[in-house]
């Protein structure tokens, strides 16, 4: 039983971890490597106007939940303006306001969107209770059109398509001509169609958006019509009567409201520009997994708030560092100050960068040792002396930060992130080793710790490792299994092969 | 010489590695609750005295910082003593005073220390500077052992001691530890002392190891270190074997000093003895531990165990050149 206990435990851990990882990769599409990217688009709306004096206020419709796309990120650039966003029926509006603008004002809204399956159009709307009150002339025309279309259609979708096609003819019949303005645009035809469809109790609404063309500097807003068939909204192309938005269409706002409005400003205009970028596949996989309501995804770290995620990004790597320490100590046989001190130093290196980190660490420990040797002359008690070393380490850190600020050596500022108590303990232990076993041993162990810390840093914060552990935290079960296995390792350490080589040679001779 | 020994060859020689020592021998044989018996040297001393085993006389114990400042009262005019932490490890924190020069004390290495230095050192010991895990500690002041004349030519200041590895009560491997200038009069190998293998059967030294390399002469005195007879070897073996009953620890390092007047005395015990003893003896420890596991009677009295060890492990000599080839 005792003999099998550990192998069985290790096997269970391994199987659990591997099956979870395989499920997440195969079924949920989590990317294995950080480099996997998918296409996404950045759409920028630039609203500019000439201020006419007094407090100005500008409103711009911004996308809420465009069908077929999801908004990964958005930001507003508007120096000197107060900004708020507001839900208005089916839309979202950004409202900028400022007290005393002068000259040409420019406000930016930027959204990053990526193609994504969504169900935002699944919304049942009951048929309209009463048709609008048409005047006599319109009433006759509407009824004539409705009669003609009804005779050729099967359901609300085809009915609406036929209507749109009829209105879009280059030479509309006289009934249509009566309802349409001269030189009718897409927008006018949509407006007329909604008016006519209301006569047949069919709910319809206008939707406007953009076509995504890479590098477009002034993309045109395109009007579409959405018709509700009692189950869902069906988008219809006003030109062709085709159903459904094309893949490159991003819906911007709905209803017959203007895109923007400006108070106390003139010559207002909005320009859209579109660029294509690549986004991390992880971002999309997360959203998709969350929408699929998989239990694995809803209990994922990716569901946490971003700043908490960032904490775990580092925390989850500590086991990897700890495993490395186990390996280096029990299989290789490297000596370090403090068992897991190098892991904590490696965490600090993450903020400082490796070279700067090693440099700062060496400087701090050297200065600290010098002070510690001076303190030895004062013959202090152990705990007060340790406290004194901690205080001096912190002062040294502050001094290094200030000095590097003066010298414009920016990485020096990150010295504040070193774990100072660990540093103080390292200095104390190093000084004891120095006194008891000589400088050679102390420096050897100090350099050993530093090399181990650098190794931990390189492995823990390798992009692929970091990504893999964070996306698949269950892989820590594998780390645990390995640590348990190493716990029963009774073979020689590499340093012992070196240590016993004299013995080996002596007996061989 | 090759850079690394081959693990296979080491396994054939029965060399014990650190991992195997910890997992296969210390773990199963040393019960944790018996550790204080060896980690606390005051407790060891008390147990030994109760069992009638010879140890160096204890002059006094300092337990408080207040006591550290009044060290002169405990010293009571003595000028020949040793200060050591009760829970020290690896020989750290041991100060040997061999006499006085005017107002100051004289360390074994000749460095003078005044009373202030001594009480600061004791205060460091009390704060746990040398103890495992930094716990508060006590300082012991005890009789300074006087090295037996036999070792006069092969040690540099300080007192040599004999380290015996005792497995389940059977002495399996022994080594003489000679202080050097490098080790500052201390007899710990990792501090720079020389280890010399000892034949379990007769108590004669065999080969030397210094800083993990073979040596034949003491580097400070240049006298040969091989083929020296350890005085009173029978008593040394008896003290080591009885340390098993004393502590209940199955895997034990026993440090014995041979005083010129009092003969062998147990200086301290160690529940995690080092592995360099194998290099000094040119013998794999594991092979001997396996012999005890296979043939050793668990309930044998100390005398029978010593006889077993002498018969099975004795007989190695300095001139021996053990060979892996069949004779």
From TrEMBL, chain A:
Domain Inactive transglutaminase fused to 7 transmembrane helices per the UniProt entry, residue ranges: 23-181
Keywords, alphabetical: Membrane, Transmembrane, Transmembrane helix
Name assigned to this protein: Uncharacterized protein with transglutaminase domain
Stretches that traverse the bilayer: 6-23, 315-348, 354-375, 382-403, 409-430, 442-461, 467-487
Keyword ATP-binding: no
Pfam families, sorted: 7TM_transglut, Transglut_i_TM
Organism field: Sinimarinibacterium flocculans
Superkingdom as given in the UniProt entry: Bacteria
InterPro entries found in the cross-reference section: 7TM_transglut (IPR025840), Papain-like_cys_pep_sf (IPR038765), Transglut_i_TM (IPR025838)
Keyword Transmembrane found: yes
Domain 7 transmembrane helices usually fused to an inactive transglutaminase: 258-503
Automatic annotation (TrEMBL), chain B:
Protein keywords: ATP-binding, Ligase, Manganese, Nucleotide-binding
Residue stretches making up the ATP-grasp domain: 45-296
Gene Ontology terms describing biological process: SOS response
A cellular component annotation (GO) from this entry: cytoplasm
Coiled coil residues, start to end: none
InterPro entries: ATP-grasp, RimK-rel_E_lig, RimK-rel_E_lig_ATP-grasp
Single GO molecular function: ribosomal S6-glutamic acid ligase activity
PANTHER family noted in UniProt: BETA-CITRYLGLUTAMATE SYNTHASE B-RELATED (PTHR21621:SF0), RIBOSOMAL PROTEIN S6 MODIFICATION PROTEIN (PTHR21621)
Protein name: Alpha-L-glutamate ligase-like protein
